Amino acid sequence: MHILLIHQAFAALNEPGGTRHHEFARFLAERGHQVSIIASPVSYLTGKTTKNKQVETEMEGKISIYRAYTYPALHKSFVHRLYSYFSFMISSFFISMKIKNVDIVWGTSPPIFQSFTAWLVSKLKQAPFLLEIRDLWPAFAIAVGVLKNKVLISLSLWLERFLYRHADKIIVNSPGYLEHVRLKDGQSVTLIPNGSDAGAFSPANTIQIRKKLGWTDKFILLYAGAHGMSNDLPAILQAAKIIEDNESIRIVFIGDGKEKNNLIALAKSLKLSNVEFLNPVPKNNIFDYLQSSDVCLAILKPIELYKTTYPNKVFDYMAAGKPIILAIDGAIREVVESADCGLFCEPGNPLAIANAILEMYHNRKELEEIGERGKVYLEQNFNRIMIAEKFSDMIEKITGSNG
User: What is the per-residue burial (b if ≥16 Cβ within 10 Å, else e) of 379-400?
Assistant: First the structure.
């Protein structure tokens, strides 16, 4: 079977960002399938061009990654972001049409525009169209205030419904998305959740890493991921201000995004000495940092729609065996509370975040046990290999292929 994935924000294991699709591609290749991926050379985290090669291959040629031209100003403004999306939408179409003998076309959203390209390519190649929903765009963009123009909103809502209606199969990565997709006329919807693979990464030399980073005598609260509008990271900085008298606690941000410079400026204006900003780390290295921290944090703005999400970072935290402070309500709260691996605190409430940090700090002897509970729960319920096998079985059924 030959799978064609069109994914502007694709991140390989040696790049920062979510690597679900690379991990799936490697699993599919191990089962004997051919996977072609059309991706952007521009990092969705940093907005910088990171890849120059037009084609990369791995696993003896079973995986081919094509880099399609993308307008390189992703983080300048919403208008520039649209230029980026449309440029990739067009360039990925022409590369797609040169790829032969495709059995299924896999589109993913957001950004939703590349999924239209995937649908069009599937029709021209007479192959099934698989649509993956990774968040509820444009609903999220409208809710957070990124998408305001009434004409663009109408067009985006039309495109969303069009794709839902014309997909041969839809997959979502959170159970919270199922109702939304079905209400928008999505048919044949399957949950293929986010997850992580605790066994894919070796135990880190945490003593050496902490010494190198200057963390030896510190209690480290770590946030790893995008620094965007949705992430509500100013609330963490405000929490840092509340607890600044406790010099043993340090809050570390790893990642990048449109808001990073603003966050650094805010930390300076608050005169914070207990926060640290680090550059993005490739996925195959991030577990060293996670394992070397004491507690990890996941946060989103207090928007009702965000209760539907399954943020991938939470599963990575669990895989690393770390206790979690969770400032996200809804579906992911149910996971953390079922695993009994962290503390929930009210989203958008810096005082609640500060109190959760202090509670973890004052219960340091219990942290290893709390983190281990999360790791065991993940291995039993959200293991990436188990999820990839379910995904592979599904597309083999769609295409009538077993290799």
Answer: bebbbbeebbeebbeebbebbe
